[in-house]
């Protein structure tokens, strides 16, 4: 994967100092939200760890100007996130872990379509934020890879290479919102990622949960969710604007979510 540059299909460039994004001609986007180390300490295995003060930067609702009205009409939202390089103590730079709130638009907790732009990612997910987390997955992804999180699942995005910033784009429901309570009640996700002495990720079970099994894997092909490999998810939307309507309306793919494997 060294030297590979993924064609994102939209002119958005991550910057690290200050952390955020620049938007090219004909692209709209908001001021970024910054998540600082103090904001996420409660979800870490070592809440007292040291690490970059600015952990990651989020821009929700970006797109091409020509699609602004259409995105609103279809209830779709495209977001981009960039992570700092480095570590949080022995842990990788990562998000806290959350579930998507129940959307008033669909009555569902909605799915999310991730696409890695640069760096190296683990999309971690578990079925429940209860004592028994259910099935747990760590999906290892590289630039150009797509990973889909199903409705109602806890998920967290982890930077698997401390030497590289991680950047990704994602399709979300326009009524997006995050529910953190179940994860915070358990002091984080069910499996903590930790770097060993060779900067390879290992996993330690969170004792606040009942026993579970972690499945480490590559992304599925997601043919049943109309994903085309090698074509950016923004360009796929551009070519067929209704292709991702199951994001704001998950019931359209209800049969796919049953026994879903990321």
- CATH architecture assignment name: Sandwich
The number of domains is 1
Query: For the report, how would you describe the main beta sheet?
Result: 7 strands, antiparallel
Estimated structural class: mainly beta
Shape: globular
Low-confidence stretches: none
EC number: 5.3.1.9
Catalytic activity: alpha-D-glucose 6-phosphate = beta-D-fructose 6-phosphate
Protein name: glucose-6-phosphate isomerase
Pathway: Carbohydrate degradation; glycolysis; D-glyceraldehyde 3-phosphate and glycerone phosphate from D-glucose: step 2/4
Give structural notes:
With 262 residues, the chain is mostly beta strands. The protein has one domain: Jelly Rolls (Sandwich). It is built from five helices and 19 strands. The chain has helices spanning 37-40, 68-74, 181-185, 233-239, 254-257, and strands at residues 12-16, 19-23, 27-28, 33-36, 54-64, 76-83, 87-88, 91-92, 99-100, 112-118, 121-126, 136-141, 146-149, 154-159, 167-173, 178-179, 191-195, 201-205, 214-217. Strands 3, 4, 5, 6, 10, 13 and 15 form a seven-stranded antiparallel beta sheet that branches. It has a four-stranded mixed beta sheet with strand order 14-11-12-19, with no helix packed on it. The protein has a two-stranded antiparallel sheet with strand order 1-2. Strand 7 (87-88) and strand 8 (91-92) form a beta hairpin. The longest helix has 7 residues, at 68-74. The two termini are 22 Å apart.
């Amino acid at each position: 994967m060294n030297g590979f540059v993924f064609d994102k299909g939209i002119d958005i460039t991550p910057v690290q100092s200050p952390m955020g994004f620049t938007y090219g001609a004909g692209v709209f986007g908001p001021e970024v939200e910054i998540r600082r180390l103090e904001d996420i300490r409660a979800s870490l295995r070592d809440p007292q760890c040291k690490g970059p003060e600015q952990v990651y930067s989020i821009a929700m609702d970006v797109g091409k100007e020509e699609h602004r009205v259409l995105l609103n009409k279809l209830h779709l939202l495209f977001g981009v996130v960039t992570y700092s390089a480095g570590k949080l103590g022995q842990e990788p730079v990562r998000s806290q872990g959350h579930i998507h709130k129940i959307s008033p638009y669909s009555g569902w907790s909605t799915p999310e379509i991730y696409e890695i732009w640069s760096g190296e990612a683990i999309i971690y997910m578990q079925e429940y934020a209860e004592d028994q987390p259910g099935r747990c997955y760590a999906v290892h992804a590289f630039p150009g890879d797509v990973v889909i999180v199903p409705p109602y699942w806890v998920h967290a995005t982890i930077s698997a290479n401390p030497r590289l910033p991680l950047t990704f784009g994602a399709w979300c429901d326009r009524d997006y919102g995050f529910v953190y309570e179940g994860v915070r009640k358990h002091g984080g996700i069910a499996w903590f990622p930790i770097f060993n002495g060779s900067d390879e990720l290992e996993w330690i079970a969170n004792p606040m949960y009942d026993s579970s099994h972690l499945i480490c894997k590559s992304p599925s092909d997601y043919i049943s969710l109309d994903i085309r490999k090698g074509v950016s998810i923004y360009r796929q939307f551009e070519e067929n604007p209704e292709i991702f309507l199951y994001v704001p309306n998950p019931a359209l793919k209800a049969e796919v979510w049953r026994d879903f494997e990321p």
